[in-house]
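Much of what follows relies on a compact textual record of a protein's fold. The record below shows the convention in full:
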Amino acid sequence: MAEAVIASHACATTSLVTVSAVAGVVGPILFVITLTALSYLWPGYKPLTQTISELGATNAPTMELQALNFAILGVPTAIFAIGLGVYNRHFRSTSILVGLYGIGTLLVAGLPCDPGCSFKGTSLVQIAHSLDALFSFVVFAFAPLFFWRSSRTAPKWTKTPAWSLRVAILSILMLVSYLAITALALSSTAGLVQRIFLGLLFAWMIMIAYKMARLATIDSGHSFP
């Protein structure tokens, strides 16, 4: 009986980890695809100079669709974070940061920014949007750094820490650059820098999710592509 309970619990855990890993892969990919499509739906929108949030601004023809797109990213990211913590307790600090980013992304869906999405906006919704985005970006940027620290001693993850550290360094540098550009209006490349910053972290999350699913299924005696 005890062995059956243990086996059942292990199977349930593997299923949870696998589902959450799929969410960690699918969420960012769907977000990017939808984001690209919405960029074409707004004539005159310039991805290199305008931020992602401007697609969901109060004056944007894509406001409702971009709000949905934020939810498409936020919910799967939060699910992935849960699975990451369940898979390995040493990864829980990373899972908390990723989960906070997912929740922040979900919240921003209900906080459409003012036209232009300026950090210096004075409306209450704009201020809430800016603070939420700032917090979400910071915790997401530091997630690879925490993963680097916790994965160094994790079995079967020995090749992961090195590139996680590189991603952490690059993402933090990109975040600082993006904040400087948007807050001080130093250049017209805010959209480009933001997309590079998030694209780097999305790629990192997808790789972690894929490896987590593969290892979880191998440990359970199944195969994974």
Helices lie at 2-41, 63-87, 92-108, 124-151, 160-184, 190-219. The CA atoms of residues 213 and 222 lie 11 Å apart. DSSP finds six helices and no strands in the chain. The two ends are 33 Å apart (CA to CA).
